[in-house]
Amino acid sequence: MGRRRRGRGDRDRPSGPGVGFNFFDTAHEYGFGTAERILGTALRHDLDHARDEVLIATKGGLRETDDGPVRDARPEWLRHDVDTSLAALGLDRIDLYQVHWPDPAVPAAETAGALADLVATGKIRHVGVSN
């Protein structure tokens, strides 16, 4: 069995790859960074020592406003969102980055171009749309 971590109630629990799963899906919008920070922390050993065996997917393209989250797939926001997710996860690349919801205010070609640029820089490996 894989490396063990201390859990709630002082129980041991093995980390993900140690129990046979290696794909983890989260989103910046889940707590606006909180879920990504928790996942990055929980998988830190595996991410530091077996990065190619752990696949991380996250979603972006939503922006928090005073009125709640709004869709935002503008290239500048996606670049910001990816950088924010990388920092929260403690990674140098995201294996699958998905636009959480299509943004009808932004032409799909603009969104696709920004994602292609992020792939070219190595910040993300694959792209998709979640909903």
UniProtKB/TrEMBL annotation:
GO cellular component: cytosol
Keywords carried by this UniProt record: Oxidoreductase
InterPro entries: AKR, AKR_Detox_Biosynth, NAD(P)_OxRdtase_dom_sf, NADP_OxRdtase_dom
UniProt protein name: NADP-dependent oxidoreductase domain-containing protein
Species of provenance: Mycolicibacter sinensis (strain JDM601)
Residues annotated as domain NADP-dependent oxidoreductase: 19-131
GO molecular-function term, one example from the UniProt record: oxidoreductase activity
Presence of keyword Magnesium: no
Keyword Magnesium: no
